[in-house]
Amino acid sequence: MMDGNYKLLAKALEPHIPREQLIDDDLRTLAYGTDASFYRLVPQLVIKVNSESEIRAVLQECRSLSLPCTFRAGGTSLSGQAVTDSVLILLGPSWRKIQIHDSGERITLQPGVVGSHANIALAPYNRKIGPDPASINAAMIGGIVANNASGMCCGTSQNSYKTIEGLKIIFADGSILDTRDSLSRIQFQKTHSSLCSRIHQLSKITKQNSILANKIRQKFRMKNTTGYSLNALIDFDDPIEIIEHLIVGSEGTLGFVAEVTYRTVPDYPHKATSLMLFPDIKTACEATTLLRECPVSAVEIMDRASLHSVEQKSGMPEYLKQLDKSVAALLVETRGKTQNELEKHLIHINNTLATLNTVRPFSFTQDVVEQTQLWNIRKGLFPSIGSIRKIGTTVIIEDVAFPIGRLANATLQLQELFQKHHYSEAIIFGHALEGNLHFVFTQDFNQLEEIHRYESFINDLTNLVVHTYNGSLKAEHGTGRNMAPFVEMEWGREAYTLMKEIKDIFDPENILNPGVLLNN
After folding, report:
1. Residues 368-390: b if buried by 16+ CB within 10 A, e if exposed
2. At residue 126, does pLDDT exceed 90?
3. What is the DSSP string of 361-386?
4. What is the predicted pLDDT for the residue at 384?
5. What phi and psi values does residue 379 have, to the nearest 5 degrees?
6. Which of 98, 113, 214, 423 has the CB geometry, 3.0–4.6 Å to 418, for a possible disulfide?
7. Looking at residues 424-430, what average pLDDT do you find?
8. Rg of the chain on CA atoms, in Å
9. E-assigned strands of 102-143?
10. Mean of the per-residue pLDDT values for the chain?
11. In 370-479, which ranges are E strands?
12. Is the distance from CB of 82 to CB of 35 less than 8 angstroms?
């Protein structure tokens, strides 16, 4: 049953939104109390929105009643960004418009478009969107932009931050800015002169602070989605461009993305894939360093525990069962515009890795069925842990990034942390070219001692990533709720103060997704 203010909200929205789009019954609000993370927050009211006018009405009424609200697209958020115990704004089925421009060179998408559907539309042009998260078959564009999602082939050069051409944004006060429209930009700078001026001043101060500016540049050379996209303050001069890029990765805490136009990237038709097995993590990381200088599109690292978790599944290579416990794997893919170009890539890669010790001789396959089988090893890792978890436990997945030159030692120390805290089933995998590791384990939150065990692990993990390696606590899943308490630890007081001011500039009443990204 809704509390008083939520009843007032529902009543205030009656002229704007059909009653059937307002969900407050216990069963359905409970169902919307989870996303793909381990958090449960049951909303008081779920509002399905089908238009910009409905979004604006909800935001304006929530603001007037001081009610926090959270946006939800596909609900694939791994860090608790799409759950709330207040108002959940849920995209209805009308947000799926796709427009292709300039023979696939650009694409305009509404936030309800599933990522893979955008790529299907671009396939005839041999193009795709830059971001390629593992959840692309379910994740929607709204979440992909909001989390600055990347993925296996995306790296730091093809994420949303680097490939957006423009956004249509709806802010907490209901105002709209279309950064692709010159008239909208001019009008916004008139009606929101204070906001634009404050952003411009923040940018100026940050650029003049050489120590802070250099720190920001260094942090974003790695994959980094911890906190706000502070690189926007030093990458751009125009306040509208700064605003546009601050919205990317802001996890619904600064505004709602109603539309995005991407510059697309090539999707080369010729590809070859190889599963390379090395005697240990150190050698696999050495290979990764060499592969950074090669024409590869993906290099996925998997520790022995990862391979063990899927070796009994149908379609897996038999030799996985016979590997020593120290073995590590790289799943490598290279692509070319033509078959001739692809062959040149293969020669380059083979020559580069010729001196490294491997467990088995590796070869590349261009057979689609065989490629799918190899990729199923990597894609089956997360589900494999979920399938063996004990009743009452949840699956935790986190992602961090380390400087690539120190990836081997960092991986070994991460394995030691799992042993120290008795997470015997934990697996490590990730996007090796970027030093980006994912790890998965199961956790029971029903017992106090288990909560303390998890807290102790997280404290050790954050110290390892930040203080030992100066890495990123979040590389591509967004900060969410889990790492929000550690944003200041990673960035330091000065940068964290900048982030808090950014939040205050965009959302002074703190109604947009509070508790996510910043919460102290």
Report:
1. eeebebbbebbebbbebbeeeee
2. yes
3. ----B--HHHHHHHHHHHHTHHHHHH
4. 62
5. -75, -15
6. 423
7. 90
8. 23
9. 106-109, 127-128
10. 93
11. 394-401, 427-431, 436-443
12. yes
